[in-house]
Amino acid sequence: MKIKTSLAxxxxxxxxxxxxxxxxxxxxxxEQLTEGVTPSEIILTGGFAxxxxxxxxxxxxxxxxxxxxGSSNFTLHMKAKLxxxxxxxxxxxxxxxxxxxxDERLDAGEYRLIVSGKAGGHGEDDTHQYSLHVGIQ
Length: 137
Hints:
137 residues, mainly beta, Jelly Rolls, five-stranded mixed β-sheet, five-stranded antiparallel β-sheet, 1 helix, 10 strands, 15% helix, signal
C-alpha cells in the first residue's frame, strides 16, 4: 500500500509541477507594445492577466487606452497597471465598462503593462475581447 501511495505521489508531482509552473508569465510571453493598435485579446478571467513590455529610448508622453467592442458593456471590469523596470507602480487604471486610459510622461527605460479583466459569462465573442491604443510622443 505504501509503495502504491509513494508511486502515485511521484507521478502526480512529475505531472503537476510543470503544469503549475507554466501558469505564470515569462519574459518571452510578454508582448511588445508599440505605437498603434494591438490585435484583439480575449479577456482572461480567474486572476490571469496579459503582460506587455514597453521600451522607450527617450523621455516620452505615453497614452494607452483600451477599446472594447460595444464600449458600454457594464459587465466588463478591467484593470491596468503600468510598472517601471524595478516593479514600482507608475500608473493604475480601473474600468467598469471595458475602457481605461493611462496618460503619463515616462523617462527612457523599460516598462510593463499588466492588463486583467473579468467579463460576465464565457466565450470568445466581442464582449470578451479588447485591444489597446498606444500613442508615444
